[in-house]
Design a protein that fits this description.
Elements (H helix, E strand, L loop, with lengths): L4 H8 L6 H4 L3 H13 L3 H17 L3 H17 L3 H11 L6 H18 L3 H18 L2 H18 L3 H14 L6 H18 L3 H9 L4 H17 L3 H14 L5 H16 L3 H9 L8 H17 L3 H17 L3 H11 L9 H10 L11 H9 L8 H10 L5 E4 L5 E4 L2 E2 L8 H13 L3 E2 H8 L5 H19 L4 E3 L3 E4 L6 E2 H10 L3 H11 L11 H19 L1
Parallel strand pairs: 1-7
Antiparallel strand pairs: 1-2, 2-3, 4-6, 5-6
Length: 554
């Protein structure tokens, strides 16, 4: 990953300046450092940036020193000296960074987390920090760059399609609905990837992407369409779409990978296994981004299996699995293992689904004793349908009830493996009251409930409305779920219920670093109770923000 090319153009001229002139000015030293790094002269780049740092400190300029320090970390990173780069970033965390510098520092930490440590949970938490700060200081470009990179990278690698969808919505929301062409391309690309991976309304989604009319959007849509048509056995249409994509793709673009895989798949379906193998053999996997390298290897394994070349299919799937393990992506590891299995996934194989789902940030299903949620929600995503039917069947016959309450983000409640719709609550106040009581996790004074949820209403009418709301909650969850004494009201949700805010509170008190990191990654990027606009919800958001800050600072 490189800095913007505009900086390259500005920096190049410093190479022609006399050394005596450059070495007296930290700004010129920084520019020359960048030019050296861009030219592959990493040691010279590190040396110039270190001199700029020392000179800025001697001149009493902490802002310039911080910029120079980040240039040192960048040069070391490009030399792949991750340890030294990380040490410089740790040192700079003690500097009084400006908001712009803090954003750059956080983005460098994201690169370190993804490319070196393979820690996607940490990367997601850092992305959240970038987005919060960018929103606070009004840096729309930094905000959207982070949103897009997170959606196409971390969220897809971990199978978090809900977060990908929220990222697409955030792009539109940030622009007030008037999204410029470049950002609209990424918004529609994110939605297309969700459709492609889940198998829902794929062709409609790709049509909307191609309708943007620019070369990049059309090529990307054609390449994905080719893959989709090939996997559906529509060889002629897939061949035509892949040829269109190959003609319009930019060199080195992921479009080339998708188009070639589609072509290979068509060859395999036409019993031209050797040609399929040759096409796959032309792909330089090392040049692909990690996410597409893993997805591509899995797709290539499926193609080879369709061509009857089981050993080669297993070899490619093995490479994908090893890469997924290295990048800590259980979602893609499972997709790779699904290719290793036969097309018919037995119920017993779902034990592996649950095991891997429990490793993911997506729900921590095992930790909350919720195998059905793991199988139903995660099973739908793997291998475009290999285990969906079996997962659904298992959820109906296992006798285990999934009970999940999410308050960080939009309110969502899963009961019996099914997400409750708004109509299930009968009345909106019942849903709001449920969220209110679940959030507080303790007896709440009835008068406070009335003040917070029925503000301004006459007390008799408010109490009547409260009783009605309680009756609808009991109808959905059982008679004993609401405890109403003379003075207090309490929601009684016993295990196996899992509530995200309660998990966050436990993590903030815990000394377990793995628990803190997992919960931070799971909760740090969402706005609590985001579909409520009431004063108590704002208070809740303040508390959650404080809990997240405590986790980040420990």
């Amino acid at each position: 990953m490189h800095e913007p090319s505009r900086r390259s153009e500005v920096a190049a001229w410093t190479l022609e300046l006399p050394d005596a002139e450059v070495e007296q000015d930290p700004v010129l030293l920084r520019a020359r450092s960048f030019a050296q790094v861009e030219g592959g002269r990493f040691d010279l780049g590190v040396s110039d940036a270190e001199r700029a740092f020392s000179l800025a400190q001697a001149q009493g300029d902490p802002v310039e020193a911080a910029d120079a320090g980040m240039d040192v970390a960048y040069a070391l990173r490009e030399r792949t000296n991750w340890q030294a780069s990380g040490e410089w970033l740790a040192k700079l965390d003690q500097f009084p960074l400006t908001p712009a510098q803090r954003l750059r520092w956080l983005n460098m930490k994201v690169v370190e987390a993804v490319s070196h440590r393979r820690d996607f949970m940490a990367a997601r938490a850092l992305h959240s920090e970038v987005e919060d700060l960018a929103l606070k200081v009004g840096d729309t470009m930094a905000l959207l760059t982070s949103v897009i990179n997170r959606a196409l990278g971390v969220e897809r690698l971990t199978g978090r399609y809900d977060r990908m969808a929220e990222a697409a919505a955030a792009i539109e929301r940030t622009h007030g609905g008037q999204v410029p062409a470049e950002d609209e391309h990424f918004r529609r690309r994110i939605l297309a990837l969700i459709a492609f991976d889940t198998g829902e309304r794929v062709e409609d989604s790709l049509t909307r992407l191609s309708e943007l009319g620019d070369r990049a959007s059309i090529a990307y849509a054609d390449a994905m369409l080719a893959l989709w048509l090939a996997s559906s056995g529509r060889c002629k249409e897939a061949q035509e779409a892949s040829e269109r994509a190959l003609r319009s793709a930019y060199p080195g673009n992921v479009v080339l990978l998708m188009a070639r895989l589609a072509r290979a798949h068509v060859h395999a379906l036409q019993d031209r296994g050797n040609e399929a193998a040759v096409t796959i053999g032309e792909i330089d996997w090392a040049e692909e981004e990690p996410a597409w390298r893993m997805v591509g290897l899995i797709e290539a394994a499926r193609i080879e299996r369709a061509a009857g070349r089981a050993e080669l299919a297993q070899e490619l799937a093995g490479q994908a699995i090893a890469l997924a393990v290295d990048h800590r992506s259980p979602f893609l590891e499972l997709r790779g293992r699904a290719v290793m299995d036969t097309m018919r996934v037995e119920v017993k194989n779902l034990a592996r689904v649950v095991e891997l789902a429990g490793m993911m940030n997506y729900g921590e299903a095992l930790a909350r004793r919720d195998p059905v949620e793991a199988a139903t929600s995660f099973g739908h995503a793997i291998a475009r349908g290999l285990a969906v039917d079996q997962a659904s069947k298992w959820s109906k016959t296992s006798g285990v009830t999934a009970r999940v309450v999410r308050l960080i983000g939009p309110i969502s409640v899963v009961v019996g493996g099914r997400l409750l719709e708004r109509s299930d609550w009968v009345r909106p106040r019942a849903r709001t009251l449920f969220a209110y009581l679940a959030y507080h996790d303790r007896p709440v004074q009835v008068q406070r409930v009335l003040d917070d949820l029925w503000t301004g209403m006459e007390e008799g009418a408010a109490k009547k409305s409260l009783k009605v709301a309680c009756s609808y909650i009991r109808r959905a969850f059982g008679e004993d779920v609401v405890e109403w004494s003379a003075q207090t009201l309490r929601l009684v949700l016993e295990e196996p219920y899992w509530i995200d805010v309660h998990d966050l509170r436990r993590a903030s008190r815990s000394s377990d670093p793995d628990l803190r990191r997992r919960v931070l990654a799971e909760t740090g990027g969402c706005r609590p109770l985001e579909d409520l606009n009431e004063p108590w919800a704002e208070d809740a958001r303040t508390e959650v923000a404080a809990l997240i800050a405590r986790l980040q600072n420990r």
